[in-house]
Structure formats: C-alpha cells, structure tokens
C-alpha cells in the first residue's frame, strides 16, 4: 500500500509540474505573446509593400502592371496555400525554428529584389520566397502560440494578435510610401528585409515552443508535459480537405471567402494606391488612407464578433458582402487628386467591413464541421488568398488593357453581390432527430 501511494504521489507530482510562478512576476507567456505581436507587426511590412511597388517598377523597368501583379499574385497564392500546413510544420519542428527560418527567407527574398534585372526574378524573390516565408507566419502562428501558452485570456490575446497585422500596416505604410516617393523603391525593399532580420534574435532568444520547455504551466492553466512531435498533422489536413470537399457548404464558404480576398488583399491592398495615383493623388496620401483602413479594420472585426454571437450568421455575412459591393461601385466616382470628405467616409466604411467577414465564416465552419472546423477554416482561408492572387494579377492586366481601374472596381462590386447571394443559400446543418419515446 505504501509503495502504491508513493507511486501515485510521484505520478501526481509529475503531472502537476513545477510550482506556480511567484506572485507579482510577469508570466513568461506574456513575453512570448509580445514577441509574437512584434513578429506579426513586422510581417505587415511584407504585405504593405507590393501596392507601392507597381508604379516605380513599371517606370524603371517598363514591366507591365499585369506582370508585376502576377508576382504579387504568386506571393498571395503561396501565402494562402502554405497556411494550412504551417501548424503541421510547427508541430513537427517547433514554432521557434519555423518562424526564424521564415523571417530569414523573407529577408533574403526582399533584399534580393534590389539587384533584380528581369521580371522572373521579381516572381522568384518576392512571389515565391516572400510568399512562402510570410505564409509560414500566417494565422496558424498566432493560433498555435495562444493555444500552447494561454489557458486564460485566450480571447483577449487572440484579438490583440489579430490586430497586430492592422497595427503593422498603420506603422509601415506611411514610412514605406515616404521612402518610395523620396528615395525610390530599393530603400523600401531594404527596410522590409531589415525589419524581418531584426526580429530573428528576439524570436530565437525569447520565443519557446511550449511552456514545458522552461518548466512553466500555461498562463491560467495546469502544468502539462510537452507533446511529442506530430508527423501526421499534414496528412490530417489533406484528409479533412477531402472530406469537406464532398459537402456543399464548404464550396459556398470557400467561394465567398475567395471573393472576400479578391475584394480586399487582391484589389484594394494591391491596387488602391496606384489607382489613386492615376487620379493625381500623391502616393503618401493614398498610402495614408490605406493605413487608416487598417485602424477601422480592428474596430470592425471586434464588432463583427459581437454581432456573430447575437444574429443569424448567414444573413450577417450576406449584409457584409452586399455593403462592401455597394461601396466598391461608388469608389471610381470618389477618386480625386486630393482627399475629400466622401473619400474619408468610404475609407472608414470600407475599413469597418475589411475582415468583418471572418467571425461569421469561422462560426459557419464550426456549425458544419465541428472538431475539424479549424482545419476546414484553414482551407477556406487558402481560398481567400487564391482569390486575392487572381485579382492582384487580373487587376493589373485590366489597367494595362483599359487604361484605368474602373472596370475592376465595378466587377468586384458585382462579385460581392454574388457572394451575398451565396452566403444566403448556405444550408443549416442537419439536426439529429429526437429519440422516440
């Protein structure tokens, strides 16, 4: 009996782990969250630059806007397609290694563009290298950090890390646009490379894969041993995709989210600055407006989460897409050499709707796919970036063909109307029949 009790006590002690952290001392999880925040803010620089490069590269190399847009589309497509596997890579090799390697790849790809002389090099350096690197630090990075390091305050930390992308856009867009306008595009590319490189030491020294690596419990939770590497996570991601692809709601969600990406990252983030410049607006002013979108993006996302808990999500999603479509139809009439009140109203309105579609889309994935919903959303997110990639290329090609972006704005408004209709026809999940008396 005594031996049995001793063994049980030892097992309990092993499960309990080390004693709680000293009261008043900042838990290591908050430092990990801070490093993650800084990393995501730095990653926003990579997403901010492509829209500022179109006019300078066209002027210097005489590359068509379609060619430049194709490089951006490769970047966006790889960003989206890498995202579903990013969590699997982190489970297999660790968060710190994957993020540090991704930052080095981004830094190298951005720096190499300084010496490029052919369009294929832009596709390779900015499209492939920066696309793969930034995709490895997509949504899965923040989600993995929150799930491992936090038991309490998960919602708060997730919201803050989600807002980091918008904060980074606000920080980097004005700076990069000023560099492009006054010193050329090469210093801006070097700035992005250095921003990525500067974060690497913080990631390597302060970021840890799991609380157990430093003998701690997650913030607000019990101690847990570090799980073994999961080599089969990528196979599960593919298996979940194959199962979901046999259902109608998946294709409707993927289709609506592809239009979401087309009308945000692919269109506005990539082509708003050159389109405004076509109408005589200075690049710095147009980039400043794009940064303001990032501010209201945070407000709109938080509000959308509140609405999602209280309203029918299909109708909510349809309203978001319909309002976005209407705003894009009016945009060609608002572009002018200077910023005026109707344009400011568009920026605020559009910013509130920018990623408001995410909470209801996540809720619909949860309704239909249960335990697999996170992976299904990863694939739906991939469709978002594939849609963005298509319009990043087609928008530039349309500008080359028609001499303006007007047709692109009108077509995107029509696509948003289609997305609103698609959202309304997503069926409700079947309810189990009540048991017979």
Automatic annotation (TrEMBL):
Q: Spans of biased composition, class Low complexity? A: 1-16
Annotated region Disordered: where? 1-21
Domain Major facilitator superfamily (MFS) profile spans what residues? Answer: 31-431
Would you say which domain of life the source belongs to? Bacteria
Its annotated compartments are: Cell membrane
The protein's UniProt keywords, in alphabetical order, are: Membrane, Transmembrane, Transmembrane helix
The protein's topology relative to the membrane is: Multi-pass membrane protein
Q: Where are the transmembrane segments?
A: 29-54, 66-86, 98-118, 124-143, 155-176, 188-207, 250-268, 288-307, 319-337, 343-364, 376-395, 407-426
Q: Could you tell me which PROSITE patterns the record lists for this protein?
A: MFS
The UniProt entry, under Gene3D superfamilies, shows: MFS general substrate transporter like domains
Q: What is this protein called?
A: MFS transporter
């Amino acid at each position: 009996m005594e031996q049995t009790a001793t063994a049980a006590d030892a097992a309990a002690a092993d499960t309990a782990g080390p004693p709680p952290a000293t009261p008043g001392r900042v838990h290591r999880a908050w430092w990990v969250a801070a490093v993650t925040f800084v990393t995501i803010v730095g990653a926003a620089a990579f997403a901010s630059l492509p829209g500022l490069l179109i006019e300078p590269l066209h002027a210097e190399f005489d590359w068509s806007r379609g060619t430049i847009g194709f490089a951006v589309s490769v970047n966006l497509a790889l960003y989206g397609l890498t995202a579903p596997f990013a969590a699997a890579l982190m489970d297999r090799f660790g968060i710190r290694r994957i993020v540090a390697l991704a930052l080095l790849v981004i830094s190298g790809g951005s720096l190499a563009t300084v010496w490029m002389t052919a369009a294929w090099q832009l596709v390779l350096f900015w499209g492939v290298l920066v696309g793969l690197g930034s995709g490895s630090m997509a949504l899965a990075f923040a989600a993995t950090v929150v799930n491992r390091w936090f038991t309490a305050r998960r919602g708060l930390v997730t919201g803050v890390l989600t807002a980091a992308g918008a904060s980074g856009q606000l920080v980097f867009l004005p700076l990069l646009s000023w560099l492009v306008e006054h010193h050329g595009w090469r210093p801006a590319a070097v700035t992005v490379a250095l921003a990525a490189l500067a974060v690497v030491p913080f990631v390597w020294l302060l970021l840890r894969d799991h609380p157990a690596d430093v003998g701690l419990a997650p913030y607000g939770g019990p101690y847990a041993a570090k799980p073994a590497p999961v080599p089969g996570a990528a196979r599960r991601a593919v298996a979940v995709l194959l199962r979901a692809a046999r259902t109608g709601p998946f294709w409707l969600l993927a289709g609506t989210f592809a239009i979401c990406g087309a009308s945000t990252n692919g269109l506005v983030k990539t082509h708003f600055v050159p389109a405004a410049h076509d109408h005589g607006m200075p690049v710095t002013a147009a980039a400043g407006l794009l940064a303001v979108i990032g501010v209201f993006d945070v407000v709109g996302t938080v509000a959308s989460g509140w609405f999602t808990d209280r309203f029918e999500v299909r109708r909510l999603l349809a309203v978001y897409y319909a309002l976005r479509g209407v705003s894009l139809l009016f945009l060609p009439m608002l572009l002018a050499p200077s910023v005026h009140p109707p344009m400011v109203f568009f920026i605020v309105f559009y910013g509130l709707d920018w990623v408001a579609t995410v909470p209801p889309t996540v809720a619909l994935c949860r309704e239909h796919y249960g335990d697999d919903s996170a992976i299904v959303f990863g694939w739906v997110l991939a469709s978002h970036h594939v849609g963005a990639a298509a319009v990043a290329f087609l928008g530039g090609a349309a500008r080359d063909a028609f001499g303006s972006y007007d047709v692109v704005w009108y077509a995107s408004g029509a696509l948003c109307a289609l997305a609103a209709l698609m959202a309304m026809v997503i069926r409700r999940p079947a309810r189990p029949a009540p048991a017979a008396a």
